[in-house]
Amino acid sequence: MQFDAEWLLLALAPVFLACIGWEVWHLARTRPGAALYSWPDTLCNAALALMHQGADKLAWLVAIPVYAWVYHHWRIVNWQPGWAAWLTLFVAQDLLYYVFHRASHRVRWLWAAHVVHHSSGRLNLSTAFRQSLMYPVAGMWVFWIPLAVLGFTPMQIVGIVLVNLAFQFFVHTQAIGKLGWLEYVINTPSMHRVHHARNERYIDRNYAGVLAIWDRLFGSYVEEDAHEPPVYGIVKPLDSYNPLKASFHEWIAMARDCARMTDSRTRLAALFAPPDWCARHDALAMQRATDSAVTENNTEGDLGSRKT
Ligand SMILES: [Zn+2]
Ligand SMILES: [Zn+2]
């Protein structure tokens, strides 16, 4: 019987749950009273994982035929089975993951889905389960199309995407410190703690999937500083353990912002500019209104003083 790559994460569920059990036990001994786990938070994370699994199953129904079509019509390499093919697939997908992840923080349409992963104020292994059922709508699967152009089959693509995601489970922990030379090579718990932090100097940094090299190459790497512990969560806290609210709150906010914009340029910006664009746009409009009111008052004052 052939193993279906789509079921990889579910097949690994016992390993994930065993690691969570170890982390809870370990933290209870080493950081008693730190309350790094809470039942409502963990249950919300589990619900989000199940919702994401369901949505992903449906998404593959659409994405796999697209990958197959691109593979048959546009592929530029015919790989011989072997380590060179697997290594290329792994490195290329990891680079594409970096691009997807960085775009997910800088394009609001993608952030609307990705925010789910960041909206808990806690960080533990169960935080890895916080995934969005809206990723297929946001278009995450589109980022893997270049792999089909590179000559990889749909099942190879699905497999490597899920291997990358499975690896990332292990970096969501406060139970492991820095890992020496490995910090230069792979995404580590220390590196990913920075990614989940909302401290000014940590925000929008360390986008790595498996390899740490992309952040160092493209200037998005920041080291975890022992003098500045990460503060987890998003700038505007969600304050809810409702998985539906976690999944849709940013989509609703984005739709509202888009609707209140007055022309097509600002409407497009509300959807595709960085997530904080609307707030900066509003602040600028407020500043302009204040400036023109001050100018008007000054002009009236000048006219009044000339009349006297
Ligand atoms: Zn992120
Ligand atoms: Zn994460």
TrEMBL record:
Residues 86-220 form the Fatty acid hydroxylase domain. It comes from the Bacteria. InterPro entries: Fatty_acid_hydroxylase (IPR006694), Sterol_desaturase/TMEM195 (IPR051689). Pfam families: FA_hydroxylase. Its main location: membrane. Residues 289-300 have a biased composition (Polar residues). The chain crosses the membrane at residues 7-28, 83-100. Residues 289-308 are annotated as: Disordered. The keyword Magnesium does not apply. The keyword Ubl conjugation does not apply. GO terms for cellular component: endomembrane system; membrane. GO terms for molecular function: glyceryl-ether monooxygenase activity; iron ion binding. It is found in: Endomembrane system. One of its GO terms (biological process) is lipid biosynthetic process. Keywords: Lipid metabolism, Membrane, Oxidoreductase, Transmembrane, Transmembrane helix. It is a multi-pass membrane protein. PANTHER family: ALKYLGLYCEROL MONOOXYGENASE (PTHR21624:SF1), STEROL DESATURASE-RELATED PROTEIN (PTHR21624). This is Sterol desaturase/sphingolipid hydroxylase (Fatty acid hydroxylase superfamily). It comes from Paraburkholderia eburnea.
